[in-house]
Specification:
Blueprint lengths: L1 E5 L4 H12 L3 E6 L19 E5 L8 H8 L3 E4 L6 H6 L1 H25 L2 H6 L1 E7 L23 H20 L3 E6 L1 E3 L8 H11 L3 E4 L5 E6 H14 L5 E4 L4 E3 H15 L12 E4 L14 H7 L7 H14 L1 H8 L14
Parallel strand pairs: 1-2, 1-4, 2-3, 4-5, 5-6, 6-10, 7-9, 8-12
Antiparallel strand pairs: 9-11
Helix pairs in contact: 1-8, 2-4, 4-6, 7-9, 9-11
Length: 351
């Protein structure tokens, strides 16, 4: 396939670019390179003949249709988004601009491109929108999110993603754009910007600093390894039924505190503290996030039943390999920490 990816310099996007190139696909990566977009995640790909990069803000640039015409993709994979809940609480405006206005602009350019294709081109073309399980709100102690779960977003981030999901479905029903939507659980793995929980814990351990855990630490998330997610995205765009939504999960529910303690034990093995201390001693409980959803869990049985996808279940090994990646790639994350971001807490503002 020829794949145009928006947001391909971000965490999931950069892993997806690598995965697709490794599978023999061609990729045009369009990314604005905001704070979380990092070309350092892709620096070894620049000379590959099947890879191209364009720096552009999807919400304001206006050149996307021209790049679609020039590259002639079989699919658009729309990942470009502001994605951190805490940042959305402090500054919701950018989330509205990128996640809603940006999605509208990508849809309009893609529809214009789709309508200009010949019959065979239109049969092949797909628009895949990558979204989040956070649009569904919060679960109690039982049950799972599925493709039919009503939307109930609780943060500016999740509300903006819910809005973008609705826009994508509207362009299918109103204009016939052949769309697909995925709603995934929390991702982890290499190249994740160090404001998210897992890299925060790893880097706090490395620096021997206090590890902040929100509230009681009993909030539950379903953790999905990023390369499993990339495989799911390729599966959906190549085999999924047009107009359908697929929820993507890792079958790996953990409370935040259990996850943090697991990472601390892995760090104890890989980089022991001096004097017999353990990394778990660094854990500090802090004021909870405003509107913090209690539990997310995904039922991905539709994806398994219809398209044959399921995640890798060896999460202990995958968490270990993630810790190893951060230990072995200090130059990658150090270049981020020498900029504006210093692992500081965000998300305590109330507008």
């Amino acid at each position: 396939m020829r794949c145009l990816i928006t947001g391909g310099a971000g965490f999931i996007g950069s892993n997806l670019v690598r995965y697709l190139l490794g599978r023999g696909h061609e990729v045009l990566n369009v990314d604005a390179l905001t704070y979380a977009g990092n070309l350092g995640s892709l620096e070894d790909l620049g000379s590959l003949p099947k890879y191209r990069f364009v720096q552009a803000d999807i919400a304001t640039d206006g050149r996307l249709f021209g790049w679609l015409e020039d590259f002639a993709p079989d699919c658009v994979m729309h990942l470009a988004a502001e994605s951190h809940v805490d940042r959305s609480i402090d500054g919701p405006g950018q989330f509205i601009q990128t996640n809603i206005v940006g999605t509208y602009e990508v849809l309009q350019a893609s529809l214009k491109y789709y309508r200009a294709l010949d019959g065979e081109g239109q049969k092949r073309f797909r628009f895949l929108h990558v979204s989040t399980d956070e649009v569904f709100g919060s679960l109690g102690s039982e049950g799972h999110f599925s493709e039919t779960t009503p939307y109930d977003p609780h943060s500016p981030y999740s509300a903006s993603k819910a809005a973008s999901d609705h826009l994508v479905r509207a362009w299918w029903h109103a204009y016939g754009l052949p769309i697909l939507i995925t709603n995934c659980s929390n991702n982890y793995g290499p190249y994740q910007f160090p404001e998210k929980l897992i890299p925060v814990v790893i880097l706090k351990c490395i620096h021997q600093e206090s590890i902040p855990v929100y509230g009681s630490g009993k909030n539950v998330r379903d953790w999905l390894y990023v390369l499993d997610h990339c495989k799911a995205i390729e599966t959906v765009v190549s085999k999924g039924r047009v107009g359908e939504t697929y929820t993507v999960g890792g079958n790996n529910e953990m409370t935040n505190i259990d996850l943090v303690r697991t990472l601390c034990r892995i760090m104890d093995r890989m980089r022991p503290r001096q004097g017999g201390a353990i990394h778990e001693d660094l854990i500090t409980f802090v004021t909870d996030r405003p509107g913090h959803d209690m539990r997310y869990a995904i039922d991905a049985s539709k994806l398994k039943r219809e398209l044959g996808w399921e995640p890798n279940h060896d999460h202990e090994a995958l968490l270990g390999s993630t810790v190893t990646w951060y230990l072995d790639n200090q130059s990658w994350w150090q270049s981020i920490l020498t900029g504006d971001y210093k692992l500081a807490r965000q998300g305590l503002e109330r507008s």
